[in-house]
Structures are given as C-alpha cells and as structure tokens.
Write a structure and sequence with these properties.
Blueprint: H1 2-12, H2 25-41, H3 45-64, H4 68-87, H5 91-126, H6 141-156, H7 166-174, H8 187-196, H9 202-235, H10 242-273, H11 291-297, H12 300-314, H13 321-339, H14 343-369, H15 375-397, H16 401-413, H17 420-426, H18 428-441, H19 445-457, H20 460-477
Length: about 500
C-alpha cells in the first residue's frame, strides 16, 4: 500500500519530463474526477470559480512546477493596473498604468523565453563565453501574456469595464482548457460568459465531447504517427533522397496542423462541456489560395490578436501602401519571434510577411489578368500557396536554418518521381493517413456540422460505441510514451 501511495504521489507531482497534456491518460482520469464536482458547484459561482482556479493552477504546476505562482502574481498586477486605468482621470496617468502593465508582462516573457537567445547571439557576435541560464519556460506564458495585454488595452480603450472581482480575472487567465496553447480568448468575450454562469446546454456538452474526440484523433492518431517520419528525415536529411525529404516536408505540414488544431479542438470542446464558448482557432487553412486567406484560417485567435494589437496600432492600411507593407512585415516578424527564440522562427515570420506584401501588391493586376473564378486559376493558386506553406513550415520545424536549407534544397533539386512506388510500399500506412487528411480537409463544412448534430442527438449507447472506437484507435497508433504538443514549447 505504501508503494502504491508513493507511486501515485510521484505521478501527481511536478515532473518536467512528463507535463500534464490533454492527450494523456492522467489528464482524462483527473478530468473525470473534476467534472462531477464542477457540475455540483456550477450553480454556486464563487465556489465553482475557486474550484476551477485550483484545478487550473494544478494543471500549470504539473507542467511547470512552482512557476504557477508567476501566473498568480501576473493576474494580481494586471487586475490592479486595469482598475487603476479605469479610476485615473488624466490620460497621462492612464497611459502610465497601461505601459507599466505591458512592460512588466513583456519583460517576464522576454526573460524566460528570450534570455538565452540573446546570450547566444552575443556570444556569436563578440566571441564571448556567457553561459546560458538554467530556465524552465513556464506553461503557456506566450499565450497568457497576450491575454493580459489585450485585457489592459481593451480597458484603456474603453472597450470593456475592468472586472471588480479578482477571482473572475484569474479564472479567465488560468482557465485550463485554454491555458497551455490558447485559443487566445479576449477577456471581453470570456468574462460575460463567466458572469452569466449559464448551465451548459445538452448541445454544448455533446458537441464539445465530439470536438474533443476529433482533437484526440488528430493528435494521437494522425499527428503523432505522421510525425515519426518527419522527425527522422529532418534529423538526418543528408541521408535521404529529394523525394523522401519532399514527403517529410508535406508530412510535417500536415503534422503541425493536426497537432495544433487537434489541441484547439480539445480545448474548445472541453470549454463547451464546461459551458464556455472559446470560439474557433482553425478553419481548414490548407484550402487557402493565398497567404492573406491562410492567416484568416490558421491560428485565428493569434492572427486577430496581431491585427488588433500590433498591425492596427502601427497604422494598419491607413497611411498609404508603403507604410501598410512595412506594418505587415513588422507584424509578422513579431508573430515569428513570438513563436520561438530562434532565427528560424524569425525567418518564418519574415517569409510570411513578404508573402502577404506580395499578395497585397499583386492582387489587383492578377485579378484582372487571371480571373479567380476559373478552376484552373484556383488550382494553381492553391498549389503555389500550399507549396509556400510547406517550405515555410520546414523552416519552422526542421531545427535550424542550415538544416532547413538542406531539406528544402534537396527536395527541389533532387526530386525523383521514381521513388513514388517504393516509398508507398515501404510506408503504406503513412501514405494512407496523409491521403485521408487531405481528403478530410476538403469535405464541405456543412457535412462536419451535420455529423456533429447527428452525434449530439444519437442514443447514448452509440456515443459510447464511438468513444470506445476512438480509444482503440489511439491505443493502436500510440507510441510508448505520450508525446507533447508541438506548440507546448511556445
């Protein structure tokens, strides 16, 4: 018995090698314990908030240890700063509290996320030997920093009233479905739902359950299985043919979509089960025929945040075309740096900035010469856009710029279609999963909505049977250990 309790204690304590993630059995066991208690406390809002905050902070602790106290401290400071912004009568003092809040939030993010990147660059530039700091990146710091900034800015601009209750604010900031990797929900959208405290409807609960299962399949079946090949190929690119590396590029592109949109589906689904609408974060982005549309479909809450809090404050498109193009570049470079402390992320963001500028610059003449309602034009536009996405995702995921260049160069200069048959024969399951992902990406959205509606209204035994099938699929495709989400590192 003592050994059993010791093992349980170790399982529940912080272990940097085993963060608590949605695709782990431990999380779902804890969630099944959490859910009935949440249901009992739902009508007693203060007790419900305290319980959910405690669970969310434990979720944070399980992944980042005592750094969960950093989130608590951040919530106290920004809640106070927002109140001060509201109370102050002069614009100068309102701006003081606004910028104090932003500087503190960005400084904390910068210290934990970019200190070692800065040290590495200084060492390279001046040939010094500064040692990197022994830092753990706190869970979701990139995401909740953007949430705190949006909150104080919206209060400053009068788009919302600051919440008078600190519990409401830390509930919003720490809400565990959206804590680790978003969606980056605005306080002005989330807090009214918390204050209304409506009981989740039957449709919300079951559609949320359905969405969570879809997310689990995307992550644990598609992303994790497909990602095994891309990881190996990117890691030893010199030993692979151009065709094999091209497949790895396409594979990683589909892997990161299934991985991150799978997480978003789980987060949004869990939110629905608890009675909260977290919006949408992905809208079939690989259907896009240009980069402007892509960024309206990919990581939607981040795209909207960058537009509202970076691009528009810089001037947006209000100050002429050259300034608009500069604003686009700055915004996408910020987006790239936000993703990670490495030059490949900055290059990735810059490449997307250039693509957006090129599309804005050429849109009118191309629309005159090549009507977008023609099927051939649509296909070529999609193919060019998807090829660009694959190239930039390789820069994003191949480790560093030098290795990315090897992969991309070999894929384009040594591509040999003769590898098609042996590759398919050797990796039949991988290829079939890739075909399935592509096919599902182009199914009309109304079909998905119809299936979700059917699941909501079907008998509970059918729901149970589908759940068992999902569990079996996960078991069949799972590796020896639970793989964290790609965006967990951001």
């Amino acid at each position: 018995m003592e050994t059993f309790l010791h093992n349980v204690w170790n399982l529940l304590c912080f272990d940097p090698a085993r963060p608590l993630v949605f695709n782990s059995g431990l999380f779902w066991c804890l969630f099944l314990i959490f859910l009935p208690i949440y249901g009992l406390l739902k009508s007693r809002r203060t007790k419900m908030m305290i319980f959910v905050i405690a669970f969310s902070l434990y979720f944070f602790y399980k992944s980042s240890g005592w750094f969960f106290l950093l989130l608590v401290a951040t919530s106290v400071l920004d809640w106070f700063f927002a109140k001060q912004i509201k109370w102050e009568r002069t614009r100068m003092m309102k701006r003081f509290w606004l910028w104090l809040s932003i500087v503190i939030s960005v400084s904390l993010l910068g210290f934990f996320k970019y200190s070692n990147f800065l040290i590495w660059n200084i060492n390279e530039l001046v040939h010094s030997n500064f040692q990197p700091l022994d830092l753990i990146l706190p869970l979701g710091i990139s995401f909740y920093t953007f949430k705190t900034i949006s909150y104080v800015v919206d209060v400053y601009k009068g788009k919302m009233e600051p919440t008078s209750n600190w519990l409401e604010y830390i509930f919003y900031l720490s809400f565990f479905p959206a804590l680790a990797m978003g969606p980056i929900v605005r306080a002005r959208d989330f807090l009214p739902q918390l204050q209304a405290n409506r009981e989740p409807s039957r449709e919300m609960v079951y559609s949320g359950f359905w969405l969570a299962m879809i997310g689990v399949i995307k992550k644990a079946v598609f992303a994790d299985y497909i990602g095994q090949y891309s990881t190996i190929a990117f890691g030893t690119a010199a030993g692979y043919s151009g065709y094999e590396l091209a497949m790895a590029m396409v594979g990683f592109t589909m892997q990161i979509y299934c991985d991150f949109s799978g997480y978003s589906d789980m987060a949004i689904g869990l939110g629905r089960i608890l009675g909260f609408d977290l919006g949408i974060n992905f809208d079939f982005p690989y259907r896009s025929q240009n980069m402007t549309v892509f960024w309206k479909r990919w990581h939607i809450t981040l795209s909207n945040w960058l537009m509202d809090y970076v691009y528009i404050p810089l001037g947006g498109n209000r100050k002429g075309k050259p300034r608009q193009y500069l604003n686009l570049m700055i915004t996408m470079l910020v987006g790239g740096l936000w993703h990670g402390a490495a030059w490949n992320y900055i290059v990735w963001g810059g490449a997307h900035g250039v693509a957006l500028v090129v599309h804005k610059f050429t849109k009118k003449p191309l629309d005159r010469w090549l009507p977008s309602d023609k099927k051939g034009v649509q296909f070529v536009s999609w193919l060019l856009a998807f090829t660009f996405i694959c190239i930039t995702m390789t820069i994003f995921g191949a480790g560093d710029i030098a290795n990315s260049w090897i992969v991309i160069k070999k894929a384009f200069t040594e591509f040999d279609p003769a590898y098609f048959v042996p590759f398919f024969t050797a990796r039949k399951t991988w290829c079939i999963l890739m075909i399935v992902i592509f096919a599902l990406h182009f199914v009309p959205k109304k079909v998905y909505q119809a299936i979700s509606d059917w699941f909501v209204n079907t008998h509970w035994l059918v729901k149970l049977a589908i759940f068992i099938v999902v569990v079996q699929l996960v078991i069949e495709f799972s590796s020896a250990e639970v793989k964290p989400f790609i965006y967990n590192q951001f």
